[in-house]
Write a structure and sequence with these properties.
8 helices
Length: 212
């Protein structure tokens, strides 16, 4: 489904601005990230190659998530660090109690060109960690933070990489060549986690039922 939607709308104008920034990462880590991307790239299709492609896909998915998001996915709303406007993004979201784990993924083709690439929504969180996250039919006020504690990183990696929902098969089909399998989904998520930016979203008690 996602692949068909993307192909039909590949020429749709993207109204969001592409951004990247340097992050405090060592030269050795950057080299490892690029090497991982070079190994991963041959497994991937050519549909998604940049942050702009990811934003296009997210924009296509938003209407599908207007009533409710499927298990394992959510709609994250951040505040633009330059405009102050709300920015929404469809995102894979794995809930563990009152914390939801997400990952800013780095597409292999994008990393090969720029190992420092950071998505606009992560930059927004760094500027203002107050967010909203829609899960199912409810939207939660929340605080987002990048995960640095080793114990929480391990817990987040297990939650992200070992959890497989039905919607993940569509994601796998969009990103990887060949038929999607549970093993390929887990492997893909390990790549996303190990080369991306793991983020924890701590949910507040306040919710907004049926909020789009």
């Amino acid at each position: 489904m996602y692949k068909t939607l993307y192909k039909c709308h590949a020429e749709r104008k993207d109204l969001l601005v592409s951004t990247s920034t340097l992050s405090p990462t060592s030269a050795e880590q950057l080299a490892e990230r690029r090497d991982a991307a070079l190994r991963e790239a041959p497994k991937h299709t050519q549909l998604l190659r940049s942050a702009r492609d990811g934003r296009r896909l997210s924009a296509l998915m938003l209407p599908l998530y207007a009533i409710a998001t499927p298990p394992g996915h959510g709609v994250l709303t951040t505040v633009g660090r330059r405009t102050g406007k709300q920015r929404r993004k469809c995102i894979r979201a794995i809930r563990h109690g009152d914390t939801v784990y997400v990952v800013m993924l780095r597409l292999p083709a994008a990393v090969i060109k720029d190992t420092h690439v950071v998505a606009a929504w992560v930059l927004n969180i760094r500027a203002n960690p107050s967010v909203r996250l829609k899960l199912g039919r409810r939207t939660h006020d929340a605080i987002a933070r990048e995960i640095t504690d080793p114990g929480e990183l391990q817990a987040a990696r297990e939650a992200i990489c070992e959890t497989v929902h039905l919607v993940d098969y569509g994601e796998c089909d969009l990103h990887l060549r060949g038929l999607p399998t549970r093993a390929k989904i887990k492997e893909l998520h390990r790549y996303w986690f190990d080369t991306g930016v793991p983020i924890a979203i701590d949910l507040a008690a306040t919710t907004h039922p049926h909020d789009v």
